[in-house]
Amino acid sequence: MEILAFGVQADEKPLIEQGFAGHHEVRCLDVFLSEDTAPIAAGYEAVSTSVNAVLDSRVLQILADGGTRMIAQRSTGFNNIDLDMAGRLGLTVARVSYYSPYSVAEFAWTLAMAVNRKVVRASIRTRDFDFRLDGLMGRDMHGRTVGVLGTGKIGEAFARIAHGFGMRLLGWDIAENPACMELGMKYVTKDHLLAEADLVTLHVPLMPETLRLLDAPALRTMKDDAILVNSSRGGLIDTAALVAELREGRFTGVGLDVYEAEAGLFYVDRSLEAVDDDTLARLVTFPNVLVTSHQAYYTEDAVGQIIDATVKNVLDYTAGRRSENVLVPRT
């Protein structure tokens, strides 16, 4: 069987080809799966997709009509897939339920420290041989309070680093993580956390209950000089409300690796085009905001684990096996 892999980055291609070697043939495309590109999959029983693919009812119908029977998503998140429609069409859907939590946690800290210590601004200045320190003053993290929204594997990894900095730990989640509590984390309400934290970081999945978890009222609850980091899903923050707060001069820094309307923007070169997303265009103009293109997971370790799991998902499908990665089982 030959698998068609959509949205493959240049760094990923040799790893995907190596992963499937000896099992199945794989064809890698750099284009993302969408209604326009879905017809390319005609004749392929299995396709692999990335987190920024669009797998709504129309795309799934095109895939099913073309003979696709299995979708292997190369990510943990699956909010981009209409699972009910996939079930009705008889499509098997699997995801990657686990990969290195350190990749995302460490990158979240990279964003936090970059905006705290004005690293991007300093780098731009020194390239112009401007070595002034004006406007580059940051703050010690030691002794300050961090609020971790979502204390699963990634949130725990982030908290361990914060503990190393000597920070006070506040947590919010539907269930308390004993490992975080051993670090001294105190679980509080979301509003309590937002009101007290000097650094707020998001590590919860995107679902109807968490959509725009940080809306306008929640953002207003935060300290004026707080740092906000989101390396989870863009839809957790009401971006328009965030822009409004930034225009009021609030927040020491904001580090975003995700954006709620990133599909069609992230992972492609739009540098020679006029971007018609006014909210994103405004967001990147703030000097205290750092936006990266959903790269927190992008380490050799994590990508290797993602590919290994994806290969296993396809092998399980062909063998008729079911694992914890299956979202819609084979019928």
TrEMBL record:
> Which Pfam families does the record associate with it?
2-Hacid_dh, 2-Hacid_dh_C
Mind listing the UniProt keywords for this protein, alphabetically? NAD, Oxidoreductase
Is Oxidoreductase there in the keyword field? yes
Could you tell me which InterPro entries the record lists for this protein?
D-isomer_2_OHA_DH_cat_dom, D-isomer_DH_CS, D-isomer_DH_CS1, D-isomer_DH_NAD-bd, D-LDH-like, NAD(P)-bd_dom_sf
- Molecular function (Gene Ontology), one example: NAD binding
Instruction: Enumerate the spans annotated as D-isomer specific 2-hydroxyacid dehydrogenase catalytic domain.
Output: 8-327
Q: Which part of the chain is the D-isomer specific 2-hydroxyacid dehydrogenase NAD-binding domain?
A: 110-296
Which superkingdom?
Bacteria
Family to which the UniProt record says this protein belongs: Belongs to the D-isomer specific 2-hydroxyacid dehydrogenase family.
Q: What protein name is recorded for this chain?
A: Lactate dehydrogenase
Report the source organism: Streptomyces phaeofaciens
